[in-house]
Amino acid sequence: MRAMWDDDVLAESDDTIVIEGNHYFPRDAVHWDRLTPSTTSTYCYWKGQASYWSVTDDLRRGADVAWSYLDAFPAADEICGHVAFWRGVRVVAG
């Protein structure tokens, strides 16, 4: 799977975990040089507190396009530290 921001690859892995329709990529599959930490956080009753990242390229900015549960609750342990994408990021078969 690939997480695409226009034509740029933000993450790529054959080992994603799908939860609630979202592909969670391993941390080492993410191109962190394309992402900037955000101050946004959200809470899920069964996954825990999510942290967010934004992307900026030469053409447009994407706020809070990636998120991760860095300290997930036990029920979501399998995605702890993995990263998912949305808001203009296309996740496609690679």
Offer a few descriptive terms.
94 residues; Metal Binding Protein, Guanine Nucleotide Exchange Factor, Chain A; 0% helix
How would you portray this structure in words?
The structure is a single chain. By secondary structure, the chain is mainly beta. It has one domain: Domain of unknown function (DUF427) (Metal Binding Protein, Guanine Nucleotide Exchange Factor, Chain A, Beta Complex), CATH 2.170.150.40. The strands form three sheets. A four-stranded antiparallel sheet has the order 5-6-7-8, with no helix packed on it. Strands 2-1-9 form a three-stranded antiparallel sheet, with no helix packed on it. Strand 1 and strand 2 form a beta hairpin. The radius of gyration is 12 Å and the shape is globular. The N and C termini lie close together (5 Å). The relative contact order is 0.29.
Please, what is the average pLDDT? 95
Uncertain segments: none
Q: Can you name the CATH architecture?
A: Beta Complex
Anisotropy-based shape:
globular
* Amount of helix: under 10%
Strand order of the largest sheet: 5-6-7-8
Kindly identify the CATH topology.
Metal Binding Protein, Guanine Nucleotide Exchange Factor, Chain A
What's the topology here?
Elements: E1 2-5, E2 8-12, E3 17-19, E4 22-24, E5 35-44, E6 48-56, E7 61-68, E8 83-85, E9 90-92
Antiparallel strand pairs: 1-2, 1-9, 3-4, 5-6, 6-7, 7-8
